[in-house]
Specification:
This protein is 39% helix and 17% strand. By secondary structure, it is of the alpha/beta class. It is built from 14 helices and eleven strands. Helix 1 crosses helix 5. The chain has two domains: 4-112, Oxidized Rhodanese, domain 1 (3-Layer(aba) Sandwich), CATH 3.40.250; 151-294, Rossmann fold, CATH 3.40.50.
Length: 306
């Protein structure tokens, strides 16, 4: 009978191992792979590496088909210290999966390297009821809802574009919404800018927007920025957010947002509209062109209406 040491040595000869830095590089790239946490559910709940799915070691052979049926897709496994996952990786290799990788040192070494982890808080009864329709969607589910509650989105502009975007993100349960707008509510805004009411005329838009969002969903933390975006403040403001939504109405801001998002590696969701025509584009750094790639220079002043 083989000893545990012999089994581990055999497994490590058959599989490949990567360290935390290599896994972090994979997560930052656009190359597809699957990350599986083979620890027990109680260990997983105490903290895990995003976007790992939890299939505990005892069920891996039976449930791997729910994660992937592609034998050539890279699969990275981890456990607490890298021992259980090494044995698990060998099993998947024997089952015909050709590109199985073990995280050397496991979750413990990942944490010691100072890399980010996620620990989900239990959903309250009210949250379970509020987001129950999301739980029915396979693309969201409870795990996706928890991720939404952890997410941070910055909306630039609380006007015709920013209003519906902010309102729906808040309803969906995006946990932190930054709202940036230096304008005040005008009566001409009210036929389309649904964050504001008649009683808000004359108030800063970020104030009325904050009240509306808090009344809609108390789960959402609103961070108001009653200022215009400038080259002096953009770097500091953008750094805390996962996603940027640009609903600005001028080219100076659009190019500024584009350049800052590119430099910080932030995804920029851009929208613009004129009368009955509109466009929406997602600019993801290193995954496609940016706004400046499509429009290298702004049009002459006065040529394009805002």
């Amino acid at each position: 009978m083989k000893t545990l040491r012999e089994l581990l040595a055999e497994a490590r000869r058959a599989i490949r191992e990567e360290g935390p830095e290599e896994l972090n590089a994979r997560l930052a790239s656009s190359e597809p792979f699957i990350l599986i946490d083979v620890r027990d559910p109680d260990e997983y709940r105490d903290g895990y590496i995003e976007p790992a799915i939890n299939i505990s070691r005892g069920f891996l052979e039976f449930r791997i088909g729910t994660a992937t049926t592609d034998p050539n897709l890279p699969i990275v496994l981890y456990c607490q210290t890298g021992l259980r996952s090494a044995l698990a990786a060998k099993v998947l290799k024997d089952l015909g999966f050709t590109n199985v990788i073990n995280l050397a040192g496991g979750y413990q070494r990942w944490v010691q390297s100072g890399l980010p982890t996620v620990k989900d808080s239990p959903l309250s009864t009210d949250q379970i009821q509020r987001y129950s329709r999301h739980f029915l969607l396979g693309q969201v589910g409870e795990k996706g809802q928890r991720k939404l509650l952890r997410s941070k989105v910055l909306l630039i502009g609380a006007g015709g574009l920013g209003s519906p975007a902010t309102y729906y993100l808040a309803a969906a349960g995006v946990g932190t919404l930054g709202i940036m707008d230096g304008d005040r509510v005008d009566i001409t805004n009210l036929q389309r800018q649904i964050l504001h009411k008649t009683a808000d005329i004359g108030r800063p838009k970020v104030e009325s927007a904050t009240e509306t969002i808090r009344a809609l969903n108390p789960d959402v933390t609103v961070v108001p920025y009653p200022v215009r975006l400038t080259v002096d403040n953009i770097e500091e403001i953008l750094k805390d957010y996962d996603l940027i939504i640009d609903g600005s109405d001028n080219f100076e801001t659009r190019y500024l947002v584009n350049d800052a998002c590119y430099l910080q590696g932030k995804t920029n969701v851009h929208g613009s509209i004129f009368q009955f025509e509109g466009m929406a584009t997602v600019f993801a750094p290193d995954r496609g062109p940016c706004y400046r790639c499509l429009y290298p220079t702004p049009p002459p002043a006065g040529l394009v209406p805002s």
